[in-house]
Amino acid sequence: MTDDKEKSSKVVKSSIWYTIANVSIRAVAIITTPIYTGMLTTADYGRANTFNSWIDVFNVFACLCVVYSIGRAKLDFPDRFDEYMSSLQGLSSSFGFILLVLAFIFRESLSGWIHYEIPLAVGLFAYLCVAPSVEYMMQKCRYEYRYKENILISVITCVGQVALSILLMLLFNDRRYIGKILGVILPTAIMGIVFYIRFIVKGKVFYNREYWTYALKIGLPMIPHALALILLAQMDRIMIKGICGDGDAGLYIFGYSFATLLMIFTNAIGQAYLPWFNETLFDGERDRIRQIQKKLVILGCFLSFGFIAVSPEALMILSISNNSYWIAKYVVPPIVLGTLAQYFYTNYVNVEIFCKKTSIIAMGSCIAALINYILNYAFIPKYGYIAAAYTTLASYLVLMVMHYVMVRFVLKEDVYDDKYMFTAMFVMTLAGIAYLFLYGEGIAMIVLRYAVTMVIAAVFAIAKRHDIITLINYVKKRFLRKNQ
């Protein structure tokens, strides 16, 4: 019982600190954006950020998606976890090195394909040989409940990237996009080398057939999944730009970027919850998982409701000098609801990974990406860029249903209170879409919207007062009293 309380305490505490860290890091990104846009031309800004997109794509292949195996490996190899992590790194870096050799041999073709200079094109693959070690270390810390070290890595990386980017952009005065690119990849690469050595020294294993086979069985089927998620995130804006033009694409991206800030909170919750979930499911305590899951469902709904309620004024503040962006507020509710659906279906993904059935995950993601494309092709020409927000919501709802079916009827795992989660999603979808009628212009409409919001928040607070009081007392005990 004592161990259970300690684990629960770690989950709550790490959730709070992950959220604080993620908000702070995202705030730094927002604050520094005017610095980058002031130092870079629009063309250079685009080239620098497109390079990051290429990193995301090639990283899926170079790392073989073996990072998804870490959580389950912590349970299957509890006494050999350091050995596993060392061998896992050996696997991904070996394949990364093969790709680096190929990139060097075909460097001219590669450079022409991705439209970057040869040193940058080859350097991208050199970066992918060592940079994954940073993510491996963060995952290791996460599953060992060492959240302080995890957050420290994120903070050091963020600050290092900002400082070095600004310095190198000044040095590369004629081609500042190169300075921006190097400023982003060098801090991560340096930390990657440090962690690479640390893994090898501690684990002392580079190749182990058992570990490599284990990691590949889980990781390889996730490659289509990872690519499909990238496609889901990028497809809307690409199709809007092609069908409606750059202006509508800009409006969509602006509204989408605000709506997906919700992920700061949902991802922080997920990062803290997942190690506890894996251990609890491994122990067969499904009732405890259902109890916690219901609380997390309500928390996700509450956060989503808040984003939808304040989005018109938030977008006004973020674009105070250009009111042409304010119309993007109509994009926010469906994208927020899509993010909530993603937060919910991740529960089922966690079960699929736990059961080592990652091929199921990939199939669902590919089908959702295809559905998203078909819906975009059908509705964006008729209804404009706002239609893409609803096709995104529809795609994530399909994913939620598909993962539910896979877990309950294919894997035959009964882990969650599925009815509770789907009811919450249904109610939130109706409420979120209904809120669009309160997005009208004028003071009276704003007052009405916030009056409705306050009433709903009050009802929620009364209904969940015991959970709220427990959380407040926990924060006071853990954080405030220590500083007195």
- Number of helical regions: 20
Number of domains: 2
- Give the radius of gyration: 23 Å
Question: Kindly state the mean pLDDT as a whole number?
Answer: 85
Q: In percent, how much strand structure appears in the residues?
A: under 5%
Residues in helices, as a percent range: over 70%
Order of helices and strands: HHHHHHHHHHHHHHHHHHHH
Straight-line distance between termini: 30 Å
- How many β-strand runs? 0
The general outline is globular
Task: Outline the biggest β-sheet.
Answer: none
What is the SS-derived class? mainly alpha
Low-confidence stretches: none
Characterization of the model:
The chain is mainly α and 484 residues long. The chain has 2 domains: 1-220, no CATH class; 222-439, no CATH class. It has helices at 2-39, 42-62, 70-76, 81-105, 107-114, 118-130, 132-143, 147-171, 176-203, 209-219, 222-243, 246-259, 262-282, 286-318, 332-354, 358-383, 386-410, 418-434, 443-463, 465-480. α1 (2-39) packs parallel to α8 (147-171), α14 (286-318) packs parallel to α18 and α15 runs parallel beside α17 (386-410). The protein is globular, with a radius of gyration of 23 Å. It starts with a helix and ends with a helix. The mean pLDDT is 85.
